[in-house]
Structures are given as structure tokens and as C-alpha cells.
Amino acid sequence: MIARAFAELGYRRATTSELADRCGVQENILYRLWPDKKAMFIAAIEHVYEVGVRAWQRVLDEGDGDGSSAERLLEHESRHLGDLGLARIVFAGLNESDDPEIRRALAGMYRNYQSFMSTQIREHRRSTSRRGADSDADDELTAWAFIGLGTIGSIARELKVLGDRDRRRLIGEEGRRLLR
Fold first, then answer.
1. Angstrom distance (rounded) from CA 72 to CA 80
2. pTM of the full predicted structure?
């Protein structure tokens, strides 16, 4: 609930009174869980990562679809990127990145995504024998490139500058190109 409120209002517009109203609780209940609004926002950033990885883990556990784990995740993201609107929390956080705690939370979230994806990319490349001399570094950088595609896809969705079909192509086709 609190993450949804931050996604809709951003960090600066979200008052603790409004957050409490949207969560259906008294303001003092929020302060029992978190010391201040910033801690609530950092929890929302952590929630973005947790929701994303839970969805990815479901895709991997189901094992449906053709291809490696990395290819299945790309396919999933090409169809579902931004469905929950949680990227707005990240965008609001970037506006607050002068705050060391918020910056640390965002950096940690991105490092965790990068680590998760680089593992999938490494496994994909091992299984398809696409290894080179600098392969580990390439896997790490490819994971960052995937994050970049996701960010651009999220921005395009928010600003309505790419339709669903083109966003799917951006993530799916360009992502597969990066895997090669």
C-alpha cells in the first residue's frame, strides 16, 4: 500500500497523513513501523526490488517457455515491464539522490538487479558456448545494459512515447541481441 502511494504521489507530494489515509490506518501506525517518511520511502524502494525478483523467480521456477533463464526473463519483461507502475518510485528516488540514504537504497537495488541478471546471463552464455576472454566482465556489463533497456522501456511507457508493441520489441529483440 505504501509503495503504491509513493508510486502515485512521488516522494515530495506524499505526506505521512496522505500515506496513512491511502493505507487505511492512522498516521501513528506508520510511525510504529518506520521512524520517518524517508524510511517509509526506502522501504518502498526495497519493495520494488522484492516484487521484481519474486516475479522473475516465478518465471524461472515455472520453467515454461523456450530458451535459457535469461531468455525467459527477457520475454517476461518484454510483456510485463511496468505493469505495476513501481518504476515511478525509482524515478522519484532519483530526484532525491542527493540524500545519502536514498542514494544508497537506490544503488543497492540496482546492484542487486545487476547481480541477479549477470548470473542469468553467465548461465545462458555457458549453456550456449558464447564465452570469450573477458566474458565475466561482459556478463556484468550486459546486465547493466539490460537494466538500461528496462529503464528506457519504463520511461517510454510513462511518457507514452512508445506503444506496447515497440516496447516489447525494444526489450525482447534488443535484449536477445545483447545476449549474443
1. 12
2. 0.90
